[in-house]
Amino acid sequence: MTSKEPPVAIVTGAALGIGRAIAHRLARQGARIIAVDNNEPAGLATAGELHAEGLEVKFVQADVGIVEDVRKIVSFTADTYRRLDWIVNNAGVSWFKAIEEIEVAEFDRIININLRSAFVLTKFALPLLRNSVEAAIVNISSTRAFMSEPNNEAYATAKAGLLGLTHALANSLGPKVRINAICPGWINVSQPPEAFKPRDHAQHPAGRVGLPEDIAGMAAFLLSPAASFITGQAFIVDGGMTKKMIYEE
Known about the structure:
Layout: E1 8-12, H1 17-28, E2 32-37, H2 40-52, E3 57-61, H3 67-81, E4 86-89, H4 104-129, E5 136-140, H5 153-173, E6 178-184, H6 198-202, H7 212-223, E7 234-237
Parallel strand pairs: 1-2, 1-4, 2-3, 4-5, 5-6, 6-7
Helix pairs in contact: 1-7, 3-4, 4-5
């Protein structure tokens, strides 16, 4: 990639929430976006928003929990641009069920979408990434990799697994490809944004619940040349919530 060529970025789970904000941020900074999501109406809406701003985005409807769909994403990218510089593995699902109630297939589904897809997409996209001079990947984990509530075993396991995958791939693929993870805390992904109570904001030393744009800013930094000496790391972006002791009143 030369300085005159805008980067190509795959963003999974790009239709809503954090993925949508990352797609917007990277596109506005000049990247060409492959926006991936299983939700076709919402994905097309996000692509339409970027097109309305004169930005370049291609939407690919795909279920990243299905290996052949991930192959389709990489093939589309190769056919369209013949190159790939950045990946943001953001796609994720979650639902809480007691261990007595959750089916093994449900557990596997959460693992496949939240964790395995990041490995599979990286594996298949590696030939393209190795042709880039600034190849970088950001995996979107969660503070639930470090802390959890009852009945979220599958989600917590997947998000913790992303951290192991991040530092393993950083060693396997460096120095050609940099890989880092972001661990968002409480992020207001509702549309329109949910109105929280003052006590919700007060749980954060930063004084507020987070916004998708807060995570997008960190992702853009980690993908950029400014982060060229950062790889294999996990960054908690949670307004300080995991550093504050909270007592029930």
